Amino acid sequence: MASGWRTAPKQPQSLAEAPLKDTCRSNGAWYGPQPGNAVEFAILGPFEVRRGGRPIALGAAKQRALLALLALHPNEVLSSERLVDELWGGHPPETAASALQVYVSQLRKALEPVGPPYRILVTRSPGYVLAVAPEERDLDRFRALVRLARDDDPAGAAAKLREALALWRGEALADLAYEPFAQTEAVRLEELRSAALDARIEADLALGMHDELVPELEAAVTAHPLRERLRGQLMLALYRSGRQADALEAYRAARRVLTEELGLEPSPALQELERQILRHDPALAPPAAGPAGRRAAGAFAGRESEVTLLLAGLEDALSGRGRLFLIGGAEGSGKTRLADEIASRGKRRGAGVLWGRSWEAGDAPPYWPWVQAIRSQATQEGTVLATLVAANGDDNRFTLFDATLSFLARLGREQPLVVVLDDLHAADEESLLLLEFVAAELAVLPILLLALHRVETPALARVARFATARISLQPA
Asked: pLDDT at residue 110 above 60?
């Protein structure tokens, strides 16, 4: 993505017209602001503007409010009269017009200190326009992720919605709460946030995470007692957790609040949910255990100690502390099935899964397991993929290794990763050297790396010094 400025006429006239490809990659992961001189406008929390990740000083309160107002209407000309009216609530002082010009001048200097020609805050008759690319507003990123989640499976939707909700830093425009225009916008934005949260909970319920959701839903219902959808989700989560009596009590509590506060009975949908709980309707049963990860798989049983160890590594990776595990064993010992189970659990927790396998028949290109692992994510990263496929000799090895590590780190910033490399006993030397390079940096990355092999090799022995543990499986 280009990080240079785009002129206002090339910008979409409204958010609805912004093409999705300008905001997200085709795999749903999103292009964030690029380092350097790009300016990011943060609306989902206290209003903030950053350049290269660093906040920009915006000056006095009214000047700050002016920029926020323009940022709420990107690439749209706002007349001077409207700006004055919005900023002073319909009661402007006699000096309002000249004050507006001063604010614009000061903001231009803050946004583009190199001086004119100014390309961000632009004069357009009869007022001004803020030229903003889709990747430069957190609100646009939030909306794009929510749109992508609607067309994804529950695991993918949950991951995208978590990423979208993570963009929020508090109440929208919290520092401008006394500005009339900001109050209206904040209410609208909070509704978008609530809808995304509801959708994420629905996705988690579809993934069978009812036990984990109960505490979160109880807190959400306390904070928003009149939102019936949350009440229904809490009832369903309690019922699926084997707490039928608590689910029915949650319905009675909802009815008390609604009748006392609004004089209304619960909605027909909530009443029907109560009836379904009373008759143990099979439609309320939780989804089948063992959701698919890389491939469809039946319910997993056994290997309790290995699963416990690997799940601890998964927790560390989800928290940003990467881990490597070497999993060895003869053919048929269950290495791949074990890795598939951990990958599925990671996917349920919002992690992305990358899977690659060495080609045992020979004649595979260099780095083949890595090519397989990253190509599903590399539709917009052609140079990384092409370099991996065509890599030869030692000339550009370090550059290639560093580019691959940077690519994985960038994916990891978007969502934690589970990377599985299978049949590494058959991998080429280059693939194992790259594994060693990546493994050395895992401690600061949100990546769980599972390296599967049948027999020990000298190269795998070198890699082992970076492993959290080595697991040896015997056929069941």
From this structure: yes
- The sheet that has 54-55: what strands, in order across it? 39-42, 48-51, 54-55
**8-139: CATH class:** mainly alpha
Report whether pLDDT(53) > 90.
no
Least confident segment among 42-46, 215-219, 446-450, 451-455: 451-455
* CATH 1.10.10.10 domain span(s) along the chain: 8-139
Instruction: State the span(s) of the chain assigned CATH 1.25.40.10.
Output: 209-286
pLDDT at 10: 32
Q: Which residue has the tokens 């027999």?
A: 455
Contact 443, 322 (CB under 8 A): yes
Residue 164, sorted as left (phi over 0), alpha (psi -120 to 50) or beta, turns out to be alpha
Over 50: is that where the pLDDT of 25 sits?
no
> Cα dihedral sign for 190, 196, 199, 204?
negative
Q: Are 207 and 348 in contact (CB under 8 A)?
A: yes
- In contact, 422 and 359? CB cutoff 8 Å: no
Q: Which fold has domain 209-286?
A: 1.25.40
Q: What pLDDT is stored for residue 281 in this prediction?
A: 87
Contacts of 253 (CB under 8 A, 6+ apart): 231
Domain with CATH 3.40.50.300 in the chain: 304-473
Residue 361: the pLDDT is 62
Q: Please answer whether residues 339 and 345 qualify as being in contact, where contact means their C-beta atoms are separated by less than 8 angstroms.
A: no
Match domain 304-473 to its CATH number in 3.90.550.10, 3.40.50.150, 3.30.565.10, 3.40.50.300: 3.40.50.300
Predicted confidence (pLDDT) at residue 466 exceeds the cutoff of 50: yes
Count how many Cα atoms sit within 13 Å of the Cα of residue 417 in the half-sphere of its side chain: 27
Quote the tokens at residue 421.
């490399």
